[in-house]
Amino acid sequence: MIGQKPASLTVTARKMRKGNIGTMDTGLSEAERQQLEQTVEMFEAIVESQPYDCQSLEILKEAYAKLGRYADVIRTSKRLAKSYLQLGQVSSAILEYEAVLHTNPNDQEALEALAQIDARVIPGEPPIQKAAEHKGYSKPGIEEPPTAVAPPSPPRPKTVESIPKHGERTVEAVSSPPPGTEILAPKLTLTQPPKASTPGAAVKESSAIPRVVPTPQVIINDGRDEMYRIFVESKLVAPGDFEQYWPTPPVVTDKIIEPFIQIIADQRIVPIETSLKLLVEKTRIPFIPLERYDIDYELARRFPAQVCLKWCVLPFDRMGKTIFVATANPFNKTALQELGEATNNRLIYYLAAPIELTKSIKKAFRI
Hints:
- This protein is mostly helical and 367 residues long.
- The chain folds into 3 domains: 123 residues, Serine Threonine Protein Phosphatase 5, Tetratricopeptide repeat; 49 residues, no CATH class; 142 residues, 2-Layer Sandwich (GMP Synthetase, Chain A, domain 3), CATH 3.30.300.
- It contains 14 helices and 7 strands.
C-alpha cells in the first residue's frame, strides 16, 4: 500500500536470509537485462534524492540481485537497514543486517550495527561482546543473549464489510474508513410484511407494521478527504474551489478523467510543480518521470482500461511480484482495489506528472 512500511520483505531478501546470494542464477535475456539496467538507473536517481525511500530501496536491491550485482545487493541492504532505523522500524533493520550476515558472517559493519541496536533496545543490558554471540550466530556451548527485540504486538483486526457493487456480486472493504471520514447513513426502504397464511385470518391494511430494510451505500475511497486536508487546510485552495473542481468520475467513461492537481493548475490556482512537491513531502511516495521511463505497455493493457481512464492511473512496470502504478492522486485506495481485481501481485503507487501520465494512458489504450 501507499507511503507505508512494506507488508513483507521481497523475494530477494528472503533468499538472502537463506544464504543464497552467491548462488542465484540470473538467467536473463538481453532484453530483460537492458530493462533491469534501466530500472536500476531510474531508481538510483530516486533514492539519491529521497534517501529514506525504503520502498524504492527494496526494488533497487531486487534489481541488483537479478543482475547478479551481489556487492550492490549487500550495500543496498545496509543502506536500507539504516533507513529503517531512521524511520523507527527496528525489526526491519535487524532483518536487513541479518541478511547481510547470512552472506558474510564476519561483516564488521553489520555486526557492530546489531550490537548497537541490542544495546539501545535493551537498556541496562551489556552490549554483545563477541560477534559470534549474536542471536542466530552462537558458537557451540555459548548461551545466546536475550532477544534484542520484544515480540511484535498482534495486529489489530480489520473490519470486513460486505458492500454490494451496483447490484452485482459483492466485494469486501478491507478496512474501515480512516478517522474523520464522513460515513453515509444507509437508505431506508419500507416494505409490507407478508399477509397471514392462516385461512380466515386476513390481516387488515391498517394493522400492517412496516419493516425497515437498510440499503448499504457503496463507499468510494478516492482520497478526497486527504487531498482536502493537504490543499484546503494549508490554504492553497479555497473550500469552494475544492468542491467545484474535485472530479467525480462516471462509472463508465471513454475518456481520461483529469486529476485534481491538473485541474487546479489549469485554473491557475496551484502550479503543478507545487502540487507534486507537496504530495511527495506529505506522502513520501517517490516521483517517477514517465517521459524518461521505458513503460511496459503490454503490462498496462492487462488491466481494465475503464479503471485506468476513470482514475487516471497506469501500471507501468513490474519487479518480481510487485507492479508499479503511476498516479497523480496517491491517496486513491479505490483505484488500487479495482486494479487489484485483475492481478494477484502487489501494487504500489508512484507519483507522476498528470500530463505525462495522460499521454502514457492514451498510448497504452490507443485512445
